[in-house]
Write a structure and sequence with these properties.
heterodimer, A: mainly alpha, 2 domains, 12 helices, globular, B: 257 residues, alpha+beta, 3-stranded mixed sheet
Chain lengths: 290, 257
């Protein structure tokens, strides 16, 4: 799959934003007034900023409101509704925290659930696609949710939870990579089933439909990520999980906490880039590629 | 709604005969010609005369080489367009309701006024049937020439998809695959028509007919295999050269064929 910067920025940033909102909704950290305002501002910049990046991916962003209508069938529509719901509920809760020094527990709890649901709906947009076997598996949603909770814990300065979640997420991340590598072969889709010509013999792409490239090849066939996959996985693992744990285990200091957050963000961007760049869409088989 | 109809009154679709398709791409040209100036936004080209030409097509013809275990390889031309699936994943993923499957005839269409150009339907399609137009930024796909097949302003013989009407080798057929007595359904039953990527569970309406088996030379006499070959070795100058070279030290490359 083509790793579109708009989608990588969107899923990563909004994952962090809604992860932080989840913790804020549960009253962690327990600040009020101006410090609470700073935490909410960071969460909204990340969540709303991510959503804005997603509109750059649209051909007609001016029609984006229509995307709230098909929640009965479309995960993308459900994501939009959950995101707006979470942002509204958490804004009400944030007003209580910042201006009235109140912890409206029920509203915060609902906001936290909606925030996590938003991340879940985002993950289902990818996990539902049978056409991309590497995404169409049970670990895709746990990976997105674990990463959002990890990032949220880091940003919410919940050190103990963050250390636990970093280790937990790293395990899910590695498991996702290992399982993902066998998914295309396990899906049973190959050039023979794609063309239905397997009963005659081995199928080989002889001539593509056009001499030039096309939308399908630009969007679905991407080989650079796969070439460097092992190096990028190592970088993602070290930056995203190993270094943040080390920084958090050092004697506490704001500068180390900042390093931990920045390393984690860089690591998750690398992981998310690979999530797209490494994924094979079955339409590539019609071109003899993957 | 982008939920799929539980059943459609008709299942209009194409039957594509891989045995008779000659790979001339006339269906590609006629499809682009008709659809760029009729239903919806035109099918744009980018740098059509430049160094890196590309453009939107609703129908593309691939060519495959298939190598059987024994015998010569076969070249098979393979036209591919929207298969108007019964369980169309492109429809259910659409967040705006722009993608829909018609209850009356099963055609899958895009309402371009509602399309936000997110591209998710193209991601959900295993066949590469949907292409985002780079100029109009909306999703384009085969309409089964919905503006021809019911068009009473056209002569009756033209009321079929442009690709079918233009195919010079009769490799494309159009009809109701939901009616088991229709010409296309009988053709599919007789020739063993098949689905593309059946494991995807999309239940495509369009069917593909396999290439007929290649015929083989008949044995003209059952004793023929037992006859002595007429000529074992090459004679004349080549025969002498063959023997002379064999006598030289070292192995001859290329084996004993």
């Amino acid at each position: 799959m083509h790793p579109a910067p708009s989608i990588i920025l969107f899923t990563t940033l909004s994952g962090f934003g809604f992860g932080l909102l989840t913790f804020l909704g549960l009253g962690m950290p327990n600040y009020t007034g101006f410090i609470a305002f700073v935490f909410f501002a960071i969460a909204y910049v990340l969540a709303v900023g991510g959503l804005l990046f997603s509109t750059f991916h649209l051909g007609h962003p001016e029609r984006a409101l229509k995307a709230f209508s098909q929640w009965r069938s479309s995960w993308l529509s459900r994501e939009g509704i959950c995101a707006v719901g979470a942002l509204i509920v958490m804004a009400i809760y944030g007003v209580g925290r910042v201006f009235f020094a109140q912890h409206w527990g029920i509203i915060g709890g609902i906001g936290a659930i909606l925030s996590l649901l938003t991340v879940y709906t985002t993950s289902m947009i990818y996990a539902q696609l049978k056409t991309v076997p590497r995404w169409n598996m049970p670990l895709t949603s746990p990976l997105f949710m674990a990463l959002a909770i990890t990032g949220g814990a880091l940003l919410a300065a919940q050190v103990k939870i963050a250390i636990f979640m970093l280790i937990f997420s790293a395990i899910i991340q590695v498991a996702y990579w290992v399982m993902g590598d066998g998914r295309l072969a396990a899906s049973g889709t190959n050039m023979e089933t794609a063309t239905g010509l397997g009963h005659i013999g081995k199928v080989k792409a002889f001539e593509p439909p056009h001499t030039g490239t096309n939308y399908l090849m630009r969007e679905f066939i991407h080989v650079v990520g796969r070439k460097h996959a092992m190096k990028l996985r190592t970088i993602a693992l070290v930056l995203g999980f190993v270094l943040p744990v080390i920084f958090l285990l050092l004697p506490f200091g704001h500068i180390f906490a900042l390093f931990a957050v920045l390393c984690h963000i860089a690591g998750i961007f690398t992981s998310r880039w690979l999530f797209f760049a490494q994924a094979e869409h079955v339409v590539g088989l019609y071109y003899g590629k993957r | 709604m982008t939920t799929l109809p539980t059943s459609t009154q008709k299942k209009l679709g194409l039957v594509i005969d891989l045995d008779t398709c000659v790979g001339c791409h006339a269906c590609v040209v006629s499809c682009k010609g008709w659809n760029t100036e009729n239903y919806g936004a035109p099918l744009s080209d980018q740098k059509p005369y430049g160094g890196d030409p590309s453009g939107t097509f609703l129908n593309r013809v691939h060519s495959y080489e298939v190598q059987p275990d024994e015998g010569a390889a076969q070249l098979i031309h393979f036209p591919k367009s929207c298969l108007h699936c019964e369980d169309a994943p492109c429809v259910t993923v659409c967040p705006t309701g722009a993608s829909y499957k018609r209850v009356e005839d099963g055609i899958v269409l895009v309402n371009e006024q509602d399309c936000i150009g997110c591209g998710l339907c193209a991601w959900a399609c295993p066949y590469g049937a949907r292409e985002m137009d780079a100029a109009e930024k909306v999703m384009k796909k085969c309409t089964l020439c919905v503006d021809r097949i019911y068009n009473e302003n056209l002569p009756e013989e033209d009321r079929q998809p442009a690709c079918v009407r233009t195919c010079p080798s009769g490799a494309r057929h159009f009809g109701d695959l939901g009616d088991e007595n229709s010409d296309v359904s009988i053709l599919v039953a007789e020739r063993g028509g098949f689905d593309l990527m059946p494991e995807m569970g999309t239940k495509p309406v369009n069917q593909y007919l396999p290439p007929r088996p290649k015929d083989t030379m008949e044995e003209f006499d059952i004793l023929a295999p037992y006859l002595e070959p007429v000529a074992k070795d090459a004679g004349g100058f080549l025969g002498w050269l063959d023997k002379a070279l064999d006598k030289l030290p070292g192995n001859s490359a290329g084996g004993a064929n």
